[in-house]
Each structure stands twice: as C-alpha cells, then as structure tokens.
Design goal:
The protein is α+β, with helices and mostly antiparallel strands and 206 residues long. The chain is 17% helix and 34% strand. It contains five helices and 14 strands. The chain has a seven-stranded antiparallel sheet with strand order 3-2-6-9-10-5-4, with helices on one face. Its EC number is 1.5.1.-. Belongs to the flavoredoxin family. Its cofactor is FMN. It comes from Streptomyces catenulae.
Length: 206
C-alpha cells in the first residue's frame, strides 16, 4: 500500500519537505565565494553532485537567489569544501541567513586559508577543497543549478591512503530530512559485476 502525493496539488514547502526527506543522504557542498568587493562568503548547499569527469565539473543548486549564487555570477569563481563531521556545528552556523555582505567565515569563527587558483578562500579545516571556475548556470523554476569546472583540488595528506581519499578519514556529513544530519555509518563494498561473470540475480539483502 502506497500513499500518493501530487506536487501540483500540494504547497511548495510541503513537497519540498517530502523531496528532501526521501532523496537521502545528500552530500554537502560547503561553498565559499567572495563578493565583487572581496568579502568572503560561506554556505552549505545539499543539492550537490558531480556533473562531468572530462572536463571535471561539479554542480550545486541554489534554491532561490542566495549570496553564493550572486557571488559566483559576479566573480565566476567558487570553492567546494567537503563538510566534515568534526565541523558540523560550524557548517550549520554558516547556513544562517546573515545579511548580504557579512562574512560567514568571521561570524561563525571558521578558519580560512588562501586558495591556489581562485580568489575565494578555502576552509582551512576541510580535508578536501575543489577550486572551481564558473562553467554555466541553468535556471529551473525557483532554483539555479551552478556548474563549476574544477581547476584545482587540494586534499589533506591525513585522509590519503596510497593516494586514495579514504572515506573513514574523510568522515563527511550529509543532509537528511527535517533538521536531520547524517554521519558515516556502515560501509559495504560491492564490486560491479561484468556480464561475462554474471551468475544471475543476487538474493535480497545479500
């Protein structure tokens, strides 16, 4: 038995809550930008993923016209910082709707460091920073998808094992529904099966 929901017959906020409670977990792009005048900005965006590999492009969505979007449009640059479990309170603090022109780095006490290829600073305590230049934006309804070409990646050596970013050391945060946040739980390894090795469907729960 299922319950049916029709977005055309529901208030926007109610269907938004349904989407964000069911499309889970969502990785967090902790996006740093600067205003045209050079003031740093930092905000978490949980509509985030990889868009392309060659060239390397990541994307995040601004629901409404938030400062991150305005700054990217004005300067053409941003940094995606991984949001680690140890900085959960600061990640949440930077989601506060501070007035335009206020630096969330300063307001939330987040340490910054200079980026290598772009003007926006990186989060010093983040284990991974993807420095991006604007590729394009796409407006969809009340939201804007921002595509950024990654021009540099800075990864803490503390999370690398044989050159690979180890998930148990990254400890990434994720967003769930309501005010819920996810941390790293059980990790399972399942190799993709080649057709030549196919033995038939796996048993449920295997």
């Amino acid at each position: 038995m299922r319950v049916d929901f029709d977005p055309a017959e529901m208030p926007r906020t109610d269907f938004y809550r349904l989407l964000t409670a069911t499309v889970v977990p969502r990785p967090i792009a902790w996006v740093s930008t600067v205003t045209a005048e050079g003031t740093p900005n930092l905000a978490p965006h949980s509509f985030f993923t990889i868009a392309a590999v060659a060239p390397p492009v990541v994307q995040f969505t601004s629901v409404g016209r938030k400062d991150s979007l305005r700054n990217v449009e004005a300067t053409g640059e941003f940094v995606v910082n991984l949001a680690p479990e140890g900085l959960a309170a600061q990640v949440n603090d930077t989601g506060t709707d501070f007035p335009h022109g206020v630096s969330e780095f300063e307001a939330a006490g987040v340490a910054a460091e200079a980026s290598l290829r772009v003007a926006p600073p990186r989060v010093a305590g983040s284990p991974v920073a993807l420095e991006c230049v604007l590729h394009s934006t796409v407006r969809i309804g009340d939201s804007t998808v921002v595509f950024g070409r990654v021009v540099h990646a800075a990864v803490s050596e503390e999370v690398l094992v044989d050159g690979h970013a180890e998930i148990g050391r990254l400890r990434p945060l994720s967003r769930l529904g309501k005010d819920e946040w996810g941390t790293l739980g059980e990790i399972r390894e399942l190799s993709r099966i080649r057709h030549t090795d196919w033995q038939g469907p796996s048993s449920p729960g295997a």
